[in-house]
Amino acid sequence: MSNNIMQHNGQAPPPPGYTQASGPAYAGGSQYGQPHSNRTSGLQWVSESNGRIPPNPVQGGIEKDGTPLFIGRAMYKGGLHPAKVGQHLENGGCNIGYGHKEIAISEYQVLCGDASKLRWVRQQGLLNIKGFVPFPAGHEETGEPLYIAKTLYEGSQQLGKCAPHIKKGMSFPYGHKERTTDDYMVLAYAD
After folding, report:
1. Which residues of 5-41 are buried (b: 16+ CB within 10 A; e: fewer)?
2. In this structure, what are the phi and psi dihedrals at residue 65, rounded to the nearest 5 degrees?
3. Rounded Cα gap, residues 29 and 20, in angstroms
4. Which end of the chain has fewer surrounding CB within 10 Å, N or C?
5. How far apart are the C-alpha atoms of 187 and 123, rounded to whole Å?
6. 91 near 106, Cβ under 8 Å?
7. Counting beta carbons within 10 angstroms of the beta carbon of residue 167, is it exposed (0 to 12), middle (13 to 18) or buried (19 or more)?
8. How far apart are CA 135 and CA 33, in angstroms?
9. Strands 43-49 and 59-62
10. Please, what are the averages of pLDDT over each run of 10 residues along the chain (191 residues)?
11. Minimal CA–CA distance to 74: which of 55, 56, 51?
12. How far, in Å, CA of 67 to CA of 181, rounded?
């Protein structure tokens, strides 16, 4: 384990409501961010661990060396956080930004399916969702929604999270830190 990246030990039991088979469960039996209409019928969150990537993952970013970054999410400290996933990532295959640090997580979900159901919408500053519907990806411990975002950074396209309450608009894990930017794109439904 790198001294600079905190690792969430995947051996501990996941938080209540999170299972490998179904993902995070919510009141009424609904699955947060799971397909619920024709809008997302070709998309699903697939549980994985330890750097494994399921079939047909949705690529959202790319490292400067050309290595793909896939759209993911992971439970951490009571929240469900958008993440970057890749076999090359240290200590588990999934990284999130949290508490000014890059956190490696070994159990996560990867968005899989028909990427044509989605589009990227340019944002500047705090997230403004007028005119489009962002794809739901997670939430803070407090219940505030989190969405998937990407930004250009040092020759790469890095994945992270955005929300109206996030300083500058987006945060993302990179170089052992949680970084922020006000120039990014948010993942939204294509229609």
Report:
1. bbebebeeeeeeebeeeebbeeeeeeebbbeeeeebe
2. -90, 5
3. 15
4. C
5. 11
6. yes
7. exposed
8. 7
9. unpaired
10. 41 35 34 52 94 97 98 98 96 94 97 97 96 96 98 98 94 97 97 82
11. 51
12. 22
Give SS3 for 11: coil
Please give the radius of gyration of the chain, using alpha carbons only, rounded to the nearest integer: 15
DSSP letter assigned to residue 57 = B
Sequence-separated (6 or more) residues with CB below 8 Å from residue 19: 25, 47
Reduced to 3 states, what is the DSSP secondary structure of residue 38? helix
Structure token digits, residue 17: 């409501």
pTM for the model: 0.81
For the record, the structure tokens of 9 come out as: 């030990």
